[in-house]
Write a structure and sequence with these properties.
The chain has 14 helices and 14 strands. With 476 residues, the protein is an alpha+beta fold. The chain folds into three domains: 164 residues, no CATH class; 129 residues, Alpha-Beta Plaits, CATH 3.30.70.2510; 109 residues, Alpha-Beta Plaits, CATH 3.30.70. Helix 3 crosses helix 4 and helix 6 packs across helix 8. The structure holds zinc ion (ZN) (2 copies).
Length: 476
């Protein structure tokens, strides 16, 4: 279309499904014990509900023959059922000189001193709270370090996938025998991975949203997946050449096969150049990325130039091994390599939110259009007729040329202003400012009466569009 439709066929990026495994999604589990130490529980109004327990343990009630940690009997119970040193420490509710497994070892020795029989009792091989997951911490940290060594990053989000039955069993044992407020397996394990990474990586921060790297750990297979999150650059482009699509356009014959076909000369592309690649390829090179997505604030037709300050866009660079480069330098590099076909300006780093904003913004635009009149009336009639379209609201039925990909509907679009009407023989040119989504070519040639009113309709003769330029996008 020569107007713009922000809802064009590009699709909003979706959150990856596996973020569901991330620590944030389990935050509520961390709070299981918080209520039980809330002072407001002593409020008199709640006294009639007091059922004899000192504190609420959720679903289970307290067994005073086997009290929860930090009671010594509770610790002994955990040792008896085969809890590893790491888990012993984390659910004991005790402070020890050392943390982690070393702290657990101290507690275990203390318990053995209290009860010699305990040391001789048979201990199951697998810790019922973690199935010895904490033994793998170092191994996993090493794998992460290997996979991220060559990648530039400041922030990391860790997602841990633990089998559901283990989570449930751990929760059951911990809530019954662990100390109130003990941290659940998932967040404890995530923390131990983070501590491990902190000791070998400089300046890394762990976050719960918008990380540079998302790392997913599958605790069953110990598989580590590192997802390098994209970077986003905002800018404006001017398209100075007719015949360039905004986004990469796969070859119609081979549907963009990577080795192409005869008709596309092996490129896989219907058009060799696109605004996306003219801007994107230098960025992929500079940031060592894999590919790009291009999000424009609407788009112009292939044969339409885009002038003025240019069209706002967000370029998404996927899997960048480097996350920063000098943007002023990039403007020069892109403008030189695009060789007058495309020019960019006003670059700045942005985030994914900017993509939605760009897609949702609907702004007025100014165009210049030139067309041929089949049987031109007197010049003053032409000028008066076109001037009369000033301020008019058009009724536009979805144009035939786009009807294969758009719903057939009638839309109303307002003409804000018309000026600079120029007549040269049977060719006419004028500038028009109009609402977002106006089909401007149709305003002139009427699309067989689908656009009312139109220049062709008013002049009662055929009008053939020669060219169209976007002069300004009145946004940002
Ligand atoms: Zn354990
Ligand atoms: Zn092809």
């Amino acid at each position: 279309m020569d107007g713009d439709d922000p809802k064009d066929d590009s699709v909003e990026p979706k959150e990856e499904d596996w973020t569901l495994y991330s620590t944030a999604a389990y935050a509520s589990v961390d709070d299981v014990w918080d209520d039980s130490i809330d002072d407001s529980k002593n409020d008199e109004s709640e006294e009639e509900w007091f059922d004899g327990d000192d504190f609420d343990t959720g679903s289970s009630s307290v067994d005073w023959d086997s009290p929860p940690c930090p009671a010594p009997l509770g610790i002994s119970h955990l040792i008896r059922i085969g809890v590893c040193n790491h888990c012993l420490h984390r659910v004991s509710g005790r402070r020890t000189e050392k943390d982690g497994a070393e702290g657990g070892s101290i507690l275990r020795d203390e318990a053995f001193n209290r009860d010699a029989e305990l040391s001789s009792s048979e201990i199951p091989e697998l810790c019922p709270l973690c199935e010895n997951l904490f033994d793998d911490t170092e191994n996993i940290v090493e794998r992460i370090a290997e996979q991220t060594g060559q990648v530039d990053h400041g922030t990391i989000q860790i997602g841990v996938h633990i089998p559901k039955d283990l989570i449930q069993e751990e929760d059951r044992i911990r809530t019954r025998h662990g100390a109130p407020g003990s941290r659940p397996l998932k967040s404890s394990f995530t923390e131990s991975i983070q501590l491990g990474l902190n000791s070998i990586m400089e300046d890394v921060r762990f976050v719960r949203e918008r990380p540079d790297l998302m790392i997913l750990i599958d605790c069953l297979t110990l598989r580590v997946d590192v997802d390098i999150r994209p970077v986003f650059v905002y800018g404006r482009y001017r398209k100075l050449d007719r015949g360039i699509p905004q986004t990469r356009w796969p070859c119609r014959a081979c549907r963009g096969r990577s080795d192409g076909c005869e008709s596309c000369e092996g490129t896989g592309l219907q058009y060799v150049d696109s605004v996306q690649d003219l801007i994107g390829i230098p960025f992929v090179t500079a940031l060592s990325g894999d590919d790009t997505s291009f999000h424009g604030m609407g788009r112009e037709d292939i044969d339409v130039r885009c002038l003025g300050r240019g069209r706002p866009f967000v370029l998404e660079i996927k899997h960048p091994r480097n996350r920063r480069t000098d943007l002023d330098e990039m403007i020069k590099i892109v403008n030189e390599s695009a060789n007058g076909k495309v020019e960019i300006n006003e670059l700045s780093w942005c985030n994914k939110k900017e993509v939605s904003r760009i897609k949702e913004t609907r702004s007025e635009k100014s165009y210049t259009i030139r067309f041929k009149i089949d049987q031109p009336p007197e010049n003053n009639v032409i000028i008066e007729s076109i001037s009369n379209l000033n301020g008019v609201t058009l009724e536009q039925q979805t144009p035939k040329r786009v009807s294969h990909r758009r719903a057939d509907k009638n839309r109303k679009r307002r003409i804000t202003s018309i000026e600079n009407i120029l007549i040269e023989g049977n060719e006419v040119q004028f500038s028009v400012r109009c609402e977002a989504g106006t089909y401007v070519k149709e305003l002139v040639h009427s699309d067989e009466g689908r656009t009312v009113p139109s220049v062709a309709g008013i002049l009662e003769t055929d009008c053939e569009v020669i060219w169209l330029d976007v002069e300004e996008i009145h946004a940002d």
